Amino acid sequence: MHIPPSVTANADSAAPIISVRGVNKTYAGGFQALKNINLDIRRGEIFALLGPNGAGKTTLISIICGIVKASAGGIIADGHDIGRDYRAARSAIGLVPQELHTDAFESVWATVTFSRGLFGKPPNPAYLEKLLRDLSLWDKRGEKILALSGGMKRRVLIAKALSHEPTILFLDEPSAGVDVELRHDMWRMVRELRAQGTTIILTTHYIEEAEDMADRIGVISKGELIVVEDKAVLMRKLGKKQLTLILRQPLTELPTELSAWALAISDDGHSLVYSFDTQKEETGIAELLRALSAHGIEFKDLRSSESSLEDIFVSLVHQPKESQA
Fold it and tell me: Do domains 44-67+82-219 and 240-306 have the same CATH topology?
């Protein structure tokens, strides 16, 4: 893989810590898993990559980490070309994979120590002890991984990924099948790591976690990156607010004069739902209420709601491609 010199020339703090340029992946059977992916990950951010199953999330992560080879394009990780300078690039990266695969007959301490040495890092027992304590693994350090529960094995994978003190950490579906305690421990660690300058890239099916944790969101669908945006900007651009009016008398149909508003009857005619764009200066609510009053439609209560990141994600992956431009 190769990236033009203009992309690789500057690896200072202002430059992206990861640059993906023109990456494609077509497997031997002809399936195109990734289509012309271009993406910059900012140094020190938490970036969430969202997408349905089979969208290409794990393939993209595997290519950035040098596990899978791209069919075309190139990647720079922390100033190093993943193709030409694999060892240096890979030493900057920690990866917590989706699958549980560990050295079953090794002890926790041995496997974490070995992982650190694998990347050429000198021994640092104090750092590894803190790491294991942070992951509630210190009491298990002498146990064979074979004897651990699934949740503890997941903790070992996180410890292995962090053993060589990477500047970039990938978490591929880290919450899949883990208990609530581990999830809380993991997200606490993620926040601490980011505070120390580590860049975090995560894929997750728990969209509320991305909404809570991420600085920026990328959405991938059918191998194409369809949007990359700051979380707050994405939610402001694509989020919609709804005003629900609880009616005094149920409605079976709307008067034709109210067709100018985005109204829907719900709750068996007992509610009216008005959707409006948060980007517009005028919401139209005042005019709507006057129009309802003029038609003798009275309400006894109202409430407002706003789109969640999950609502936005679902709308993005299901809308036609041309409408995403």
Answer: no
Q: How many CA atoms lie within 13 A of 138 on its CB side?
A: 11
Looking at residue 8, its pLDDT comes to 36
Q: What is the mean pLDDT of the chain?
A: 83
Amino acid at 137: L
Q: What is the DSSP string of 183-222?
A: HHHHHHHHHHHHHTT-EEEEE-S-HHHHHHH-SEEEEEET
Task: Estimate the crossing angle of helix 108-118 against helix 125-134, to 10 degrees.
Answer: 120
Under-70 pLDDT residues of the chain = 1-14, 101-103, 176-177, 205, 235-240, 277-283, 304-325
Question: Model pTM?
Answer: 0.72
pLDDT of residue 312: 61
* Residue matched to tokens 């993991």: 186
Fill in the DSSP letter of residue 146. Answer: G
Q: Read off the tokens for 259.
A: 């067709």
Buried b (16+ CB within 10 A) or exposed e, 133-152: ebbebeebbeeebeebeeeb
pLDDT digits (tens, 9 = 90+) for 25-57: 999 989 999 999 999 999 999 999 988 778 888
Read off the pLDDT of residues 82-132 as tens digits, 9 standing for 90 and up.
989 999 999 999 998 877 765 578 999 999 999 999 998 999 999 999 999
CATH number for the domain whose boundaries are 44-67+82-219? 3.40.50.300
| Correct CATH for 240-306 of 3.40.50, 3.30.70, 3.30.1490, 3.30.1150 | 3.30.70
Give domain limits for the chain: 44-67+82-219, 240-306
Closest CA to 115 of 100, 126, 99, 128: 128
Q: What is the dihedral of CA 121, 125, 129, 132, to 10 degrees?
A: 40
DSSP 159: H
76 neighbors 18 (Cβ within 8 angstroms): yes
Q: Which of 164, 161, 87 is CA-nearest to residue 124?
A: 164
